[in-house]
Amino acid sequence: MNLGPLERAIMDVLWDAKESLLIREIQALLNQRAEKPWAYTTIQTVAERLVRKRLLFRTAERKAFRYGATKSREEHLTELMLTALAESPDRSPVLSRFAQSVDLDDALRLLDELARRAGRAPVEQPPGWVPPPSVD
């Protein structure tokens, strides 16, 4: 699911916040980085669109709503990658191209995760390689 620029910006604000926010809080954070300030009603309309897309949830708070992400940034990106992969009738060339395209550190991290999934010892890493921080 492709996101428009404001949809993506709202999602980034909520993923970074790690908690649900009111529209005025989202607006304040968005406008800190914006060249041109976003209107409250524009942000509210786009947030409601993200609720309909099931990317955000909302909970009532007095006369307003708090909005939060239904899944983490990592879960969302994983879903996008799996959806893109599912669009190919033959996944082998897509997976090969992906493996050739990622940088070496990412390729080694992926090999490490695949080895762990298969119940094997992690792949021996080259000298100087630093493992990624744990996402657990």
Automatic annotation (TrEMBL):
Coiled-coil boundaries: none
Family matches, as Gene3D superfamilies: Winged helix-like DNA-binding domain superfamily/Winged helix DNA-binding domain
GO molecular function: DNA binding
Classification via SUPFAM superfamilies: Winged helix' DNA-binding domain
Any GO BP: negative regulation of DNA-templated transcription
InterPro entries assigned: BlaI_family, WH-like_DNA-bd_sf, WH_DNA-bd_sf
Alphabetical keyword list: DNA-binding, Transcription, Transcription regulation
Family according to the record: Belongs to the BlaI transcriptional regulatory family.
Protein name from the UniProt record: BlaI/MecI/CopY family transcriptional regulator
